[in-house]
Amino acid sequence: MNRFIIADASKCIGCRTCEVACVVSHQENQDCASLTPETFLPRIHVIKGVNVSTATLCRQCEDAPCANVCPNGAISRDKGFVHVMQERCIGCKTCVVACPYGAMEVVVRPVVRNSGAGLNVRAEKAEANKCDLCHHREAAGCMAACQRTPSSAWTAISSNS
After folding, report:
1. Which of 79, 92, 110, 158 has its CB surrounded by the most CB atoms within 10 Å?
2. Residues 66 and 124 in one domain
3. Closest Cα to residue 12, out of 49, 37, 43, 67?
4. 144 in helix, strand or coil?
5. Cβ(45)–Cβ(102) under 8 Å?
6. Are 22 and 42 in contact (CB under 8 A)?
7. The whole model's pTM is what?
8. Does 50 lie in the same domain as 27?
9. What is the CATH number of the domain that holds 104?
10. Range of the domain at 123
11. Number of compact structural domains in the chain
């Protein structure tokens, strides 16, 4: 079954509430107070035009092109959603090129690594970033947040509907 969320461009007001909800949903402490410009990495993006706004999201493809081209097998389909296993991702961007919806991106996250000399060193890791339907929650955070805005532009889609 293919489940995904779609934003209705005729209703979206471009408020970016969905982006904030996405980031907070994936924060360890689910608190926006700890966010910085470096850690604000939404898995969805609102695109604003002159007269229209909409969000780009992963369509959770049945035969996901991003998963098919990943050289490390870091992207897979499990329990109805396509997800990235960050520990396997090398940030090569082949998934970004393969995605027909422009819903994948590679972001750089700060990490702390052991230097081998007993010192922790700050470093960066490039990794794929995409909507995972908030698989760790009962419902997608972005969807719930959009439902509370005046536009309520988001709809959950299922191949059964």
Report:
1. 92
2. yes
3. 49
4. helix
5. no
6. yes
7. 0.79
8. yes
9. 3.30.70.20
10. 62-129
11. 2
